[in-house]
Batch of 3 targets.
Target 1
Amino acid sequence: MHNLLKYVLKFNFYWLIYFFVLRLTFLAFNFSYVESDSSLEIFKVFYKGFLLDLSFIAYLVSLNILLLFFNSFFTKPINQFLQSVTHCINILFIFLTSLISAGEINLYGEWLSKINFTALSHFENPSEVIRTASSLHYLITILCIIVGFSFFKIYKSWFRQYKIFNNHSISLKKSLINLFLYPLLLVLMLIVIRGGVQPIPINMSDAYFSNSNTLNDIAVNQNWNFFQSILKNRTNLKGNPYKKFSVEDVEYFKDKFEDTPTSKLEILDIKNPNIVFIILESWSSDCIKSLEGLSGITPNFDTLIDQGYLFTDFYSNGFTSDQGMSSIFSSFPSFPSVNIIQQSDKSRLLPTINKKLSNYQSSFFFGGQLTYGNIKGYLLSNGFDIVKDELNYKHLPSGGLGVHDEFMFNQFLTEINKLNKPFFTTLFTISSHSPYDHPGERNISFSSREDPYVNSVAYTDKFLGDFMRKIKFEDYYKNTLFIIVSDHSHNSPIKRRVAEKERFKIPMLWYGEPIKPQFRGKKNKNLGSHFDIAKSLLNQMDIESSEFVYSRDLFSETKKRFVPFVFPKGYAMIQKEGYYAFSETYNKVIESPEEDEIAKVLKKDTELFFQISFDEYLKLGRKSLDQ
């Protein structure tokens, strides 16, 4: 037991030193990207990635422990064989790590991102890689291999001496101890792999700490990033899984849905208002009476509608919060199997609303963990000036997932008062997410298993109302536009099918003094989704918005509107004529219009959209090495 513990601790220390040296090498060759940052910020890269380093090391330790567990039931020569296998695996990862680091350093100047799944595509043509490599690329590769060889020698010196594989005899007592000991060690390693016992497992965002993308990239463990990228992209190892149509069909789709807006409706009195997003966790239109939902759940939201501008046919494009963020701020699609927000090399290249508002101070506040779905990484890498989550609000009353909404609304008002004007800021609520452990009342019942959810929406609604009443006394209120929208929908007491379009219908309300009086209390009946927020907002501010190619201006007449969305293992599209949904789980159509001709058109349009958008996903961030 003593030797095993010593082996595990020394193994961790060995890899931490290795990662430190490679991180230092990366920094040395890319220092020009961070030389304007403070010494303190640069120093942080060496410890901000500590948990990701440990997480990857725990994978290797777990593999070693499994082999040791099998070894404990045998003696020579099986012991010697398993020892050789273990050493070969560890040595393989030592050299593989040096090659990954070499690839990162060589490609960073071209891509400004860490090596990932996209980079592997270039090795389909190794001659091109060799042809485009410079003398410096070869030098860096040789240097990293030398570092790897040096650590191979250290490995031999440190770990060959441990005789933990030598099992001279087998006894019942020893076997029973091992049956308890090794599974216990594996459980401990699994906890380290997931970064602790917190609700949300470790994510790249845990290493993100700076507004400098390069510093964040250096902090993220290269192995953890590389293998996670491959795992998240394993479904498209053979390219676009939705590809089935010709170039002519693609052109047909693009022509059919070409954005040709006319006669824009201008609803704002001023072109540069402060902008406040309130993103409501999991709010479904089923909870809102004004959207033909259930009564008595959101009386404050319904009151706001009387003086706001409501969108009555509005939908989410996905079913998770991370999907919602990239759809709201970047108007980019999600897919059933991959989400761009979790691909940092791609998501940082997306257009975002805050990038277009270059003279605004941008900020994002959340009472929970922004590491979920790499939301924190997405926000920081896309230039949000201030990003705060529960780590900044440990003094506030919290539940299982984070700070309760009533306290976060009060904190949000305090945070807004600190911002420079004009500001673009967001509060993301949390209490209407399970486990629904908010401190509010639970007196609403529809005799449904969704009653806890419904009461959590009512709780958030109460403090949304309080917040809107309080902020009216602030001097900047008259120049502030509020956009209140849900990140995605949720099951409700109105039982919906998994891909029923009403299952994805959500509220969006624009509110505030910048809205012209004649539009207050009015409703917009255009079919829309998260995608359409960016272009609708920016066009009202007379800011160029063509980068948001999937977005449509909800205040203009346009050629044709459509709403694509994804659900667990499936994809769908809504049009005026109906909607279509296909389940990849069951390999069958689960929602479709009754009219055959309309069904055929919707099916083709849906499949074409996902073919085209997934092609864009694959291309995003990919650069030719000979550029």
Target 2
Amino acid sequence: MVVSAGLIAIGGVLLRGYGWVDMFQFSVALAIASSRVSGRGVIVRRLAAVEGLGSCTLIASDKTGTLTCNELTVRRVVLASGIEFSVTGEGYAGEGKIEGGDRHASGTELEDLLRTAILCNEAELECDTDRTAVAGDTGHTPAAEDPDATRPGTGGVWSWQGDPTDEALLALGRKAGLRRSEVTSQYPEEHAVPFESERQYAATFHSCGGDGSSAEGLLVCVKGAPEKVLAMCGDAVPGAHRAAEAMASDGLRVLALADAGVASTEENFDGTLRLLGFVGMIDPLRPGVVEAVAACHDAGIGVSMITGDHPVTALAIARELGLATDPGQVATGKDVLEHTQEGTLADFVALTRVFARIAPTQKLDIVEAAQAAGHFVAVTGDGVNDAPALRQANIGVAMGAAGTDVAREAAELVITDDNIATIVSAVEDGRVAYDNVRKVVFLLLSTGLAEVLMLGAVVVSGWPAVHDGSIILPLLPVQALVTNGIQDVALAFEPAEGNVLLRPPRPPSERIFDRLMLERTILSALVMSIVGLAAFHWMLEYADWSVEASRNALLLLVVFFENMHVGNARSEVASIFRLSPLRSPILLTGVLLALGVHVLAMYMPWLQRVLGTSPIPVPHVVLLAGIALTVVLAMELHKVYWNRYHGALRS
């Protein structure tokens, strides 16, 4: 973070010609914001992304693992004959029962389905009966590469490794008393066709172990999307599609299972498979995700759900999230392809928030179309196939728990808990970061401009007086250099003003020097410079002070101006009298420290010689403090004017 801040500062100075002090303070503001975001569970890989979060108008989120817990549990089994079973138990622990149905009527039908679920599988699920659960040894959803994930069970500690879908299927088999090691020893695997999003199914080929179950010599086990598997089944029963859709409409993730006896490992299943049935899994929503999506909507941020699940399943989840209410609001990969070919994808994506049966390559198309529609897009992803979309996004957000190294390298931010609620918190901090950058820039620019105007006016006009044939400068160069710095850095620590997520996102094209910033900067600089020059003139001409005494008093007035003006900078629309100084202790400390440093400069001999300062009588100090209140009065009047005629857009 420190290195990133330093590089930004150096780049601003060398490439853009900004001052070292300005760029340092700008970078400090971003670094502080990055630290705040990190405290929310976000790892910042590129510092500029923190400020960019304030412009986010659309979050394109994966469903599994981000909106849901990514801990699948089989809840229902429907055989091809129509016999239905319910399944108890939670998570990947193989504890629970397969209930209901008619075991006698189903015969070997259920056994064949469970066998296929276990054989067409790449996961591992074991129970260590020699271990017992201890306090703190709780279940969790592990990353696929985590071999030590554990869950306590009544008879020992369960451990798993692999894809969540495969783990759920193995847990289903264990509830029927089937172990993967025993089943695979009877049906050794000869060849495997791994699952791919484009293929939408996986298949494994097994030798039959001489049990005579397949006259062809090999048993092929297939699992995949119902519509894909049904198309490969020659004996698909009438109503099978309706059975799958009925399960999906209940919010279940549905897999179809099929098998066949084959003579070789050639991948040609057209009409040759035997449908065994369907399993319906539930992947519950993460706690707080409904509230997080609602917070996004309140903040003017759209949320799009992108999933490979069946459209009916996606709609069921979308209803819970408040993203869609009817099937017409759910787009499929086929719809995306059609609109891509017609060149209307940008308009289509702008109106659609739920995408189902989406291939990884289409996720990139959706992101590009959203950007073409004018959105500032944050994309979540965890897999290798998500990397192109993460790079294309304005802000790529990788999953830290279940994400791959490729996804993390392609992203600007990494979410440690894989929760969209954390992204919403990061967006809030991003808006605060942008607000604080504006505050620091405003304070730096307005106070610097005030000093430039004071010195420039004297040089150009010769007013207020000429002494011994030379212009009397109101401030010496060294005095002008030491009047700011501490307050500006402290302002970067300013907390959120409140209701940050109730404001609409700022337009990505909005410049930091907008009309409000320019009006406030010019007005405050004019007030400080005119009042300062007038006070300097009065000291010389009417109070009959010496030049040195007048400069000394003006320097203190400038310090008062800046310490009071930092209060004006805390909010662009809220009154300074509504913001308690105690809610920002770092800023209060910075102001007191800056004032204390100047008091030391007035009384310490060596600083007196360097800065030309000297003690000032208390009545004069009180008078100068009162004069400095003019900048507060001017800013308060401007805030009233702006809120009345332009609306409190940043309140």
Target 3
Amino acid sequence: MRLWADYVAGNLASNTLSAHAVRLQVPDGYFTAHRATKLPDASWQLRDGTYTTCDHTTPHWSVAAKDIRITPHDTVHARNLVFKIGDRPVFWLPYAFIPINVQSGLLLPRFMIDFNNGLGIRQEYYTWFNRHAGATHGIELWPWRGFILDTTCDWTRGPDDSMSGVVQGAYRWDKPSTGYWLTFQDFHPWLTTPWDTNAHTLAQINVGGDARLGWRFVPDIDAIDDTINSSLQLRVWRPTMLTTLLADYTAISRLIAVGARPEPVPSAELRINSGYERIDRYVGDQQTVVTLLPHLELNTTYKALLSWLYYRQDIFVDRAMLDQYANPQAGNVLCHDDVSALRCYYAGDLTLAKACGPSMLTGALQPVVQLVSNHAVDKQRPLPLALQGNSFGPGAYRCFLRASAEFVLPECVFDAPDTGGMCALQPSVQWDYCPYIYQNGWYHFDYWDRIYPQQQIVAKLHNRLRYQNVDVTLDLEQGYDVVDNDQRFFLDRLPYSKHLLPLRIAGAMMHEKLQVSLVQEYEWRQLKVMQSAFSIVFTDNRLQLSLSYLYQDKALQHKRRLLAHIPHIILLNLALPLTSATTLVYQTQLSARTCPHFAVVPIMHRLCWEYEGHCWGCSIGFEAVNYNKESFDKQARALVLSLYLGARGVQTKQ
């Protein structure tokens, strides 16, 4: 604590002090007062005082009170408190209790508002156990919708040794339903292990409706549904290996009204265990239950077998179940799927990286072994580098080998020292192979089950040009795949070419304030642009302007199943400084169905005004979104207001 004053008088016998025109600095901010008195218990009594974290002569924000009592390293009690922005009062409180040291007590409330939930308030209470552990208890109340109760506990044992846990529950009274969420995480270092190396472990447990591995744990009122996700993760990291053990359980049960459609979608597509779910909709109502019982996974990092040869592997075992049916509006069962499969998969990766003089050769061999239960494979002719058949009773197996290689020639560089320019060319050739795999009867739960054949060779040319402060890059790629068009991965299909892949040209120009990029794909047969992506970004201090445009040929959209009815997408972002501290931000996304006469349809508009002060800031914005969900056109409107208080020039704790 530091004290500055115009006049100071003290009594050493009673350990008291009196001062006028006082400026008092504490670890978390500054106090000023017309008069200050130090009492025998080492506390301070301030009259007509203020508190702020801003170090300006006239603080950007402050809290003023007629009577303030400060207990060092403990608390601040204030009466008749007024919060000010500059010299303008904003709101008044009759009494306030402010902790200036870590201890138990109520925290400042937070107010929230949105168009779906209305006005909400959150109040937290902090429990201090010791300087290494504490807990925060909170209640979040939405009078129109419901409430959330939560408790967060933290225990820090060292810089890299900590434990945390969160328990949360929610209740909605607009349609009585409850939800719960729980997560636990422990991070612990091992100084010595049986391998005589440093190691770290991470243990994580998630239980509840929105607690999937890899997802941020943020439940809310709208997260209450019939979905339950539980997971266990144990990760051991060593300098040469990463081992992960996972166990997931996912159950989804929903009744979805999708409205009338001309005809049913013939299949359902699911991807489990990655936080992603896509289910094609049927006419009428659909109920889907997806369950993923314990999923055990082992992942290793690359281990050096030789100085130029490395190997890694992935292993997982799980049991995946799917039960879904759809009812048309007539009431008869339209479709019913009931699948239960025990899966055991192994995938390896043997990578070679060898310098051949000035050139570089890289290659990879990836053996894959897949076993699945409750599956019978039709007897097919033998496949090159692939085996497939029945095993373990009503089960099936398939073994195959992926391969890839790339040869990079040395870079040719041409310098022009007189003009400060440089030009460089580097060609390379890449080869990729994946054998034909019969897909009949395989369930296609996720990417492990989807095997697309590939036998392609791609020629590449990388160009770099530099002149003064301008850098230009131009990359050319042309590939040829022996596999027919209709059997390749749908994202690299071209509707008019059976084997020849699109010519891909990617160029970019970079300057200190300007960046321009253009990526296009051409189809040789009809000499037409199949896809084009253009982007320009201009930055000058706080002024930022970016414009992006995406075009896809209609035939390509149908093949790729992306942006199926939107051939033209336009994105615009603008950050315009109004003053030295304020910025106007505008973002929009537009779609157009025809060109060059655009029939523009807005997808999203966002307008925001931001202020950034010396130690505080605020923003207010409006957002409008138009989107299509469950075959119904929807619109969303939101008004966002935020305020933050910071600290500048304040002494911080070490």
